[in-house]
Design a protein that fits this description.
The protein has about 160 residues and is mainly alpha-helical. It has a single domain, classed as Orthogonal Bundle (Arp2/3 complex 21 kDa subunit ARPC3), CATH 1.10.1760. It has six helices and four strands, in the order H-E-E-H-H-H-H-H-E-E. The protein has helices at about 1-25, 40-50, 50-65, 75-95, 95-120, 125-155, and strands at about 25, 35, 155, 160. The strands form two sheets. It has a two-stranded antiparallel sheet. It has a two-stranded antiparallel ribbon with strand order 3-4. The longest helix is centred in the C-terminal third of the chain and has 31 residues, at about 125-155. Keywords: Membrane, Transmembrane, Transmembrane helix.
């Protein structure tokens, strides 16, 4: 029972981190093409806590953001494509530095490509607009991953160190 409580608490925490950082967006001028500040954090969560926890927390975050009116269906589509591609890369190739550096940008590129198909617009302008976010993700994912690994290594509960 105690392990299940920790797992539910961890998922709630990861969901809130993804949702809150996903609420902060850098507008890029095209509907649905804004950069979410959650991208590097999302890749780091997949690397540290695993793909299953990341996907569950990501889906919950998308549902919450959609129900609160902070995301529309395009935002949810972009987020889910990013999660499947970036998180899938980390799950399949492992959480090494080279994988983490490219998972976010490739996830963003895939999400923009799918958005272009959805909107029936050329993909190149969406990809060009996403480049600053891709660079930001690649530059910040490793330090964020190190911070999350440190946090995951042990948490203090009732004077005892325990891992989640």
């Amino acid at each position: 029972m105690k392990k299940r409580t920790k797992e539910i608490t961890l998922l709630a925490l990861l969901t809130s981190i993804i949702a809150i950082t996903g609420a902060f967006k850098i507008p890029l001028g095209i509907p649905g093409a804004e950069f979410q500040l959650s991208a590097p954090i999302a890749v780091a969560i997949a690397a540290v806590f695993g793909f299953q926890r990341y996907i569950i927390a990501g889906v919950l975050a998308s549902v919450i953001m959609f129900l609160l009116g902070m995301h529309n269906l395009l935002n949810v589509e972009i987020s889910m494509v990013f999660r499947l591609v970036a998180g899938g890369m980390v799950a399949l190739l492992g959480p090494s530095l080279p994988v983490l550096l490219i998972a976010g940008p490739i996830g963003s590129a895939a999400a923009r490509w799918v958005l272009a198909l959805t909107l029936d617009v050329p993909a190149i302008p969406l990809l060009v607009a996403a480049l600053p976010g891709m660079i930001f993700t690649a530059l910040t994912v490793w330090p964020i991953t190190k911070i999350l690994r440190k946090a995951e290594e042990g948490v203090l509960f009732n004077g005892k160190r325990t891992s989640v």
